[in-house]
């Protein structure tokens, strides 16, 4: 068995992992890395693949899939919500590239073709990827439709985590770690050096900050990821009695898709009721109305690389009463990260020193260090390949697994192949 790292090697983003087992080649995720400038794509690899498995719909895991269809075709395996959400994100990526005058990685022809080759499978329903490899999806607890992928290959079993979260949240049950023992574990390491704060305490602090800003006559801008985070944040706000909430951007369509797949979230009825209590922004007139009096604006994009959030931040950039709150991970070299670190707002080719305050609360949908270790102990693998974490995190975590857990572990670099001998 060989594993090639063509993305997410000692970095967060553009996951692209090539598995070779027997005479089979299967690509695990094929994503992009969103940066301040043009997106970064996976490294090229030689030859074709027998199938692509997509763990979930975030662009850093699925955003490059249609590019494969420029010169070839293959089946693409994912859960039903991931198919619908990926199609939404693929289309939006083309629009964003053209708006920023960047050459898109693919056009709508490739998007439609990729979608036509998608094979969907629900959790726990084995699906043949090739004549020799079978995949089974398990709930990863990350976003709607996210999957841990258990592969049965001619050379042994492998579990690919994608992104996962062990603890339950308002939107999701935690990852299902039952019955997932495997010879090889390929796992994320985004938060390998820390645990997240207790969710209840985090919610209380977050709501307190929001209410304080509104009471002082300011606006609260919440840049969010369209899939998962947007819906959870609205749930928290409504549950804690905050009103005058405006909901903008691609999160609107993502919410409709999520509600079409009620079995993939923990309480679809509650989410539907919550979303009835917010103002859905559909026009520029609605955006101006959102700024008529202090309000909470939940809007894409989560790392501020585009989307309606730029309208609101530009309009309120000189208001010291306003507060912008990030609620998740910010990749380096993104406008959101720069705003958090330096207070510099980028919009429409200009840079401003923002007068509003900026905070971050860690509503992460990733496992913290304890969850990562729990995964390793449950899977009980012979080999661990650590990916999807910055260099220090990934390398240190692999070393810890070797020294303290007694597991053969490595954190390969981009472009590196790992040869595995199973016994």
Attribute tags:
13 helices; Rossmann fold; seven-stranded mixed beta sheet; 423 residues; alpha/beta; single chain; Metallo-beta-lactamase, Chain A
Write the topology of this structure.
Elements: E1 2-7, E2 16-21, E3 24-30, E4 51-53, H1 59-62, H2 65-68, E5 76-78, H3 80-99, H4 108-116, E6 118-120, E7 127-128, E8 134-139, E9 147-153, E10 156-160, E11 184-188, H5 199-215, E12 220-223, H6 229-239, E13 245-248, H7 251-259, H8 268-275, E14 279-280, H9 284-290, E15 296-299, H10 309-315, E16 323-326, H11 335-342, E17 344-347, E18 350-353, E19 357-360, H12 369-379, E20 383-387, H13 391-404, E21 408-410, E22 417-419
Parallel strand pairs: 3-4, 4-5, 5-6, 10-11, 11-20, 12-15, 12-16, 13-14, 13-15, 16-19, 20-21
Antiparallel strand pairs: 1-2, 1-22, 2-3, 7-8, 8-9, 9-10, 17-18
């Amino acid at each position: 068995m060989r594993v090639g790292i063509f993305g997410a090697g000692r970095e967060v983003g553009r996951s692209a992992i090539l598995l070779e087992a027997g005479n089979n080649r299967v690509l695990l995720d094929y994503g992009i890395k969103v940066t301040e400038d043009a997106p970064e794509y996976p490294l090229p690899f030689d030859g074709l693949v027998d199938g692509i498995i997509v763990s979930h719909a975030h662009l850093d895991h699925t955003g490059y899939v249609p590019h494969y269809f420029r010169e070839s075709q293959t089946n693409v395996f994912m859960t039903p919500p991931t198919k619908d959400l990926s199609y939404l994100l693929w289309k939006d990526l083309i629009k964003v590239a053209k708006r920023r005058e960047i050459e898109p990685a693919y056009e709508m022809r490739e998007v439609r073709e990729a979608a036509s080759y998608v094979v969907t499978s629900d959790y726990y329903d084995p699906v043949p990827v090739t004549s020799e490899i079978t995949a089974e999806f398990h709930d990863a607890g990350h976003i709607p439709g996210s999957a841990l992928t258990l592969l049965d290959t001619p050379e042994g079993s492998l579990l690919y985590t994608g992104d996962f979260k062990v603890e339950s949240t308002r939107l999701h049950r935690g990852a299902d770690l039952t019955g997932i023992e495997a010879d090889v574990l390929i796992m994320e390491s985004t938060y390998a050096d820390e645990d997240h704060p207790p969710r209840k305490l985090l919610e209380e602090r977050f709501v307190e900050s929001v209410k304080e800003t509104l009471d002082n006559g300011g606006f609260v801008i919440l840049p969010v990821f369209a899939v998962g985070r947007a819906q959870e944040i609205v749930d928290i706000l409504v549950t804690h009695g905050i009103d005058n909430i405006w909901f903008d951007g691609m999160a609107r369509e993502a919410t409709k898709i999520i509600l079409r797949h009620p079995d993939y979230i923990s309480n679809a009825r509650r989410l539907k009721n919550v979303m009835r209590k917010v103002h859905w922004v559909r026009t520029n007139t609605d955006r101006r109305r959102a700024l008529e009096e202090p309000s909470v604006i939940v809007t894409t994009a989560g790392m501020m690389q585009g989307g309606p959030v730029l309208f609101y931040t530009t309009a309120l950039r000189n208001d010291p009463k306003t507060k912008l709150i990030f609620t998740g991970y910010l990749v380096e070299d993104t406008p959101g990260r720069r705003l958090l670190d330096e207070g510099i707002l980028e919009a429409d080719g200009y840079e401003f020193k923002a007068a509003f305050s900026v905070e971050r609360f860690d509503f992460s949908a990733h496992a913290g260090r304890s969850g990562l270790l729990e995964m390793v102990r449950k899977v009980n693998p012979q080999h661990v390949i650590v990916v999807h974490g910055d260099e220090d995190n990934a390398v240190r975590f692999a070393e810890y697994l070797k020294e303290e857990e007694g597991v053969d572990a490595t954190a390969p670099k981009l472009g590196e192949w790992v040869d595995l001998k199973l016994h």
